[in-house]
Every structure is written in C-alpha cells, then in structure tokens.
Amino acid sequence: MWFYLVTLVGLYYLLHWYREKQVVSNLQDKHVFITGCDSGFGNLLARQLDRRGMKVLAACLMEKGAAELRNKTSDRLETVILDATKTESIVAATQWVKERVGNTGLWGLVNNAGISIPLAFNAFLKKEDFAKILDVNLLGVIEVTLSMMPLVRKARGRVVNVSSVLGRVSLFGGGYCISKYGVEAFSDSLRRELSYFGVKVAIIEPGFFQTAISNSDRHLSHVKMLWDQASSEVKEIYDEKFLLSNETTIKLLDKLSNKDLSLVTDCMEHALTSCHPRTQYSAGWDAKLFYIPVSYLPTCLADVILFWTSTKPKNTP
Ligand SMILES: NC(=O)c1ccc[n+]([C@@H]2O[C@H](COP(=O)([O-])OP(=O)(O)OC[C@H]3O[C@@H](n4cnc5c(N)ncnc54)[C@H](OP(=O)(O)O)[C@@H]3O)[C@@H](O)[C@H]2O)c1
C-alpha cells in the first residue's frame, strides 16, 4: 500500500518537473517588453533575457537608466522612455513596439514598474497619497496592458504582472497594498479573457527584496515628513513614539529582506519561456514560508498573527 502511494507521489512530482522544464521554441525570434527597467527586477530581467538571446524592448522612466542598461547589454536590446502614468507616453511606446515586432506581434509584456511611497498608517495620509501609487501600480498596469493587448494577442504570447505578497496580505496602510490587490484582480479576469486567444497570464508575488523601492532610508524620510505634516489630533493618537517604532519595523524588514533578485527574475523568465507557465509565482523565503501561508488562514487567525508582528499606535484605549 505505502509502496504504491510513494510511487504515485514520486511519479506526480516527476511529471510536474518534466512539464515545468519544457521551453518554447525560437526564443531568439521573440520580443519581450518590460516596464521599469531603470533598476531592480526590471533591470535584471532585461539583462537576463538579453543573455538568453531574446529581443528585449526595455522601457525606462529616465534616459540615464536607459543609457546604463544599453551599456551593459547586447545590440539586440533596445530602450524606450515610458512613464506609466501618462497616456501619451504609453501610446508612443506602443507605436514604437509595433514598429519593432511587425506582424509577429509581442510575445511578452512584463508590467513591472512600481512605486511604494508613502507606506504609513492610513490616518497620516490624504486621498492624493493613495492616488499617486494607484496611478503607477494599478492604472499604469491596466493602461499599458490595454494598449499592448492587440500585439500580445497576435503573438499568442504572455502577460506577466508583478504583484507582491502585499497583494495577498494587506500589511501596511496607504495605496501600495490596495494597488497590488488590484493587480491580482485585474490579472485574474485578464487570464480568463485572454485564454480564448491562447495568451497566458502570470502573476509574480515576491516577498521583501532589497531594491530601490524597499530602501528603508527613503521610506523613513517620507514617514518623518508625514509626521511633520500630521494634525495635532493624529499626533496625539499615535504619539511621537510612532516614528521610533515604525523605524524599527521598517529597518527590520530591510534587514530581513532577500538580496538575491534572481529569485524573482527567474520566475519571470519561466513565465515567459516555459511551455506551461504557472498562473502564480511566489519568490523569496518570506513569501513561501510566511505571507502566502498566512493569506490562506481564517481572517481572525491571520489578524492575530499580523497584529502581533505589526507596529501599533501608542495611545489606544
Ligand atoms: N522590492 C520588493 O521588495 C518588491 C516586493 C514585491 C513586489 N515588488 C514589485 O516589483 C516591481 C519592481 O520593483 P523593484 O523592487 O525592482 O523596485 P525599483 O528598483 O524601484 O524598480 C521600479 C522601477 O519602476 C520605475 N518607475 C517608477 N515610476 C514609474 C512610472 N511612473 N512609469 C514607469 N516606470 C516607473 C522606476 O524608475 P526609477 O528607478 O527611475 O524611479 C524603477 O525602474 C514593482 O512593481 C514592485 O511593486 C517589489
């Protein structure tokens, strides 16, 4: 009995491993458009796919980032300037991509660009603070996708949307978690809609990684600015110790965060090159061992764990 059970489980994993290893053919003929290539995951993915021989169309926010990327890569890689919050910039980038991919269409679209500031207690924030993040992380993803969709449909290609574990567990106030929950919802509907056209949609859910977006000094200087601007009522509730304890949390997250960005870019590469991409990829030990399991817990249990691990206002009843 045990022998058959172990053999069955072994066979399942062997088949699963074999299925995951199947790679699509003619990668060198396929174009991949990536947003947010100035730094972090986007930058590393662009270089990784370039080394793999794919035709990378890398979108950067700044010319400086684009020039640095071109210097580190082959002549195959081309760059374009894209601000994901500006319709005219997205339209121009789509036309630029169209001219390059021609009749074959766009094999891969990677929606990677994102911002995270401000992350703070909701009480410190205004509507504009939420809108600023949603504009890049959610509306930017939606507008770029809608604009590039005909090109991806033509190639029967792939859409890879970068979400986060914070799209599963809303750990902080502010627009970031909301934007990532939105990316998850958008990707879900997109996956079903585009499946009729042979297009596959994957979501990447990294844990905490050391990149510009998660830089603790940038977050802390912004939190300090929010504290200075806060009303006396809010300051009374949260107390001046709010800053100190939040600083400890942010610094701790920074220290614990993963340093190997390839854990994320390898997931993106698999989603773009495998014959059988997954619908969701989690990257990083914290994502796999903590945040994703917590997201499946009953709300009351998840709340206890998150309450215990999070910063609290000091002057609560
Ligand atoms: N690092 C993490 O812990 C983590 C975890 C989960 C998910 N993520 C997600 O991973 C993605 C990449 O982030 P990262 O960690 O690699 O950070 P990053 O190094 O800051 O990369 C973000 C990129 O987006 C660009 N960008 C910012 N605003 C833009 C806009 N309006 N239009 C176009 N591009 C814009 C940035 O350009 P500049 O460099 O010029 O500002 C940068 O190149 C983001 O979607 C982020 O939410 C990160």
Describe the protein:
With 317 residues, this protein is α/β, with parallel strands linked by helices. It has one domain: Rossmann fold (3-Layer(aba) Sandwich), CATH 3.40.50.720. The chain is built from 12 helices and 7 strands. A 7-stranded parallel sheet has the order 3-2-1-4-5-6-7, sandwiched between helices. Strand 5, helix 6 and strand 6 form a beta-alpha-beta unit. The radius of gyration is 21 Å and the shape is globular. It starts with a helix and ends in an 8-residue tail after the last helix. The mean pLDDT is 92. The structure holds NADP nicotinamide-adenine-dinucleotide phosphate (NAP). NADP nicotinamide-adenine-dinucleotide phosphate binds next to helix 2.
Could you list some keywords that capture this structure?
317 residues, alpha/beta, Rossmann fold, seven-stranded parallel sheet, 7 strands, globular, binds NADP nicotinamide-adenine-dinucleotide phosphate
Ions, cofactors, ligands: which are bound? NADP nicotinamide-adenine-dinucleotide phosphate
User: Portion of residues in helices?
Assistant: 55-70%
Low-pLDDT stretches: none
Q: Structural class, judged by helices and strands? A: alpha/beta
Cα Rg: 21 Å
Overall shape: it is globular
Task: Note the beta-strand portion.
Answer: 5-15%
CATH superfamily: NAD(P)-binding Rossmann-like Domain
CATH architecture assignment = 3-Layer(aba) Sandwich
Sequence of secondary-structure elements = HEHEHEHEHEHEHHHHEHH
Q: What is the number of domains?
A: 1
For the record, give the distance between the C-alpha atoms at the N and C termini, rounded to a whole number. Answer: 59 Å
Q: What do the pLDDT scores average to?
A: 92
CATH C-level name: Alpha Beta
Strand order of the largest sheet: 3-2-1-4-5-6-7
What is the helix tally? 12
By DSSP, the count of extended strands is 7
CATH topology: Rossmann fold
Tell me about the largest β-sheet. Answer: 7 strands, parallel
